[in-house]
What does this fold into?
Amino acid sequence: MPELTSGAMVLIVTGVLAYLLGSIPFGVLVTRLMGLGDLRKIGSGNIGATNVLRTGNKAAAFATLILDGGKGAVAVLIARAMAGEDAAQIAGLAAFVGHIFPVWLKFNGGKGVATFLGTLLALAFPVGLAACATWLVTALIFRFSSLSALVAALLSLPWAWALGHGDLVTLIFILATLVFVRHKPNIERLKAGTEPKIGAKK
It folds into this structure.
């Protein structure tokens, strides 16, 4: 973690605002606006881009991916500009938590992969880029979104060390742990050989 230079009230306000931004369920909003129905009743019921893709609408899935990643990045960038690096990390964590436990959906949200990657890109672009590349390579080889997310989250820790961003390791460890917790059902399906591949309708 970076040195805490911002006041407690600044960090609290930053966290609350970033959480509210992260809580915006873009997957649900995009699918409704595009006439695709209630995303929570489609496929896995998850609000992320992978489940949006199961509607067959690639544009909606891409929009959800960008918006979910963007809210993490925007939270970090605004917090950094307004307060500093300590606030940026608090904002990244809060936006991520907001996505997986959104107040607008009774705290039942997504798995946080896009928000995780967007947050990393804003905090340390080389680390975020390495994590995105890890996700992409794993997805191209195995065709499982969940496995790609798990591998990217896990390897983001050594990527941070290797690329000179050791101050991010604590935050990344927390975020990666939450990614694994949210993917527990996927891990079980991967073990059982029943996990659907990318693009497959569940």
Observations:
- The mean pLDDT is 94.
- The longest helix spans residues 58-82.
